[in-house]
Write a structure and sequence with these properties.
This protein is of the alpha+beta class. It is built from three helices and six strands. The chain has two domains: 104 residues, Hemagglutinin Ectodomain, Chain B; 57 residues, Nucleotide Exchange Factor Grpe, Chain A, domain 2. 52% of the residues lie in helices and 14% in strands. The protein has a three-stranded antiparallel sheet. The longest helix is centred in the first third of the chain and has 82 residues. The termini are far apart.
Length: 209
């Protein structure tokens, strides 16, 4: 018989656990402070981004509000201008009536000016003047003024003593302004330079001598 083999029991090597080093309280506190610092930085960054976005929204809203306000102003100005143009046509038609009143009053005899019907006509004239004034209609000044083609229309050019060239001598028809616009130019007589006198001849001089 073969010799009996002895089986040796295999034993696993014993694992010896190394004792973990205890975490020092200072290191744990430092790690927590670092984590809190990072979290704070993250929150600050998000806050700055939110502020920048809010500022952008506010700027856009303010621009939109300013544009809308300007749009409303333009619309109001255009409506006012259109209304003014519409009134100009009507008021221009009333000016000949004013001219007729002024001519009638200028030729009114003194002995009739105190009659009741004359006073009634004067009252109507005053009401018409008040309506024109309320619409911004004012007469164009001509007395002592120089001729200006923007406001005056020359009817004649005359030589007149005491007037310089281009000065208005008299008014033929009154002109009117409506605000900054000419409703009707004034018809005027304008002074011109006197014609040059021809020099006296030698024979005429000798005769005088």
């Amino acid at each position: 018989m073969s010799p009996k083999k002895k089986t040796e029991a295999k034993t696993e090597p014993e694992v010896i656990e190394q004792p973990q080093e205890p975490v020092e309280p200072a290191e744990a506190e430092g790690a927590q402070v670092e984590a809190e610092k990072q979290e704070l930085e993250r929150l600050q960054k998000e806050l700055e981004q939110a502020k920048a976005q809010a500022a952008e929204y506010l700027d856009g809203w303010q621009r939109a509000q300013a544009e809308f306000s300007n749009y409303k102003k333009r619309q109001e100005a255009e409506r006012a201008q259109m209304a003014q143009f519409a009134n100009m046509g009507l008021l221009r038609k009333l000016l000949p009536v004013t001219d007729d009143f002024e001519r009638a009053i200028a030729t009114l005899p003194d002995n009739l000016s105190r009659l009741s019907w004359c006073e009634g006509i004067l009252l109507i004239k005053h009401k018409l003047d008040a309506i024109l004034e309320s619409e911004g209609v004012k007469p164009i000044e001509t007395a002592g003024k120089s001729f200006d083609p923007l406001y005056h229309e020359a009817v004649t050019y005359e030589e007149a003593a005491g007037y310089t060239e281009g000065q208005i001598i008299g008014e033929v028809q009154r002109g009117y302004m409506m605000g900054e616009r000419v409703l009707r130019p004034a018809l005027v007589r304008v002074a011109k330079a006197p014609a040059a006198q021809p020099p006296e001849s030698t024979n005429a001089t000798e005769k005088k001598e």
